[in-house]
Specification:
single chain, 229 residues, alpha/beta, seven-stranded mixed β-sheet, 7 helices, 7 strands, 30% helix
Length: 229
Amino acid sequence: MSGAGGPDFFYREAQRLGYVARSAFKLLQIQKQYKLIKPGSSVLDLGCAPGAWLQVACQSLGPLKNGGLVVGIDLKKVKVPPAHCDSRVQTICADVMNLSKHQVRALSPQQRGFSVILSDMCPLVSGITTRDAALSAELGMRALDLAVVYSNDSQEEQCEGPSGSESNGVLQTGGHLIIKLLESEDVKEISQISKPLFGKTSLLRPKATRSSSREIYLICQGLKPEAKA
């Protein structure tokens, strides 16, 4: 629904095209502009409910014969939408904040990490601007933490995973990361942390974002080898 309470263009289009939510158009725009998900990609979708990004991610993999995988994780139990999804999509009910990198990496093909990580995670909005922004930043930093190796990671964390993995984070070298944030000073800080880790970073407010929303997406392209924060 639109901020005014009535159905808007994206809401109607989502229903017409079989997407479970209007948020599908946000990822569709990102995919059109940046082409992050390619045939054969392994995709991790953090905060995957209600499943619209699972649909777009699977579509972006191309025909089933191209291979690839989409794994969604959410606090809620999410049923894989029948439209636009196939056997390459699976969902896990879990708290991302409590999962180790080893546990998440184990969900990837050959346990070698994912080529694309999507984070559409959002806190339960309280209406208190500073509090909501801080919680959003915490979720965003968690996505970044899972993706890359932090210099203060424990030795145990860095040694986990199969020998020969390209990265001790869950994101493969050369991989891409999308993080939803709520506009605040934290966005600038997280952008600055991400910039040296990736070949390119940018911010995008998709057209399908409601006018009343403060959300913005940090697009991180091409994780550098042995990237550390």
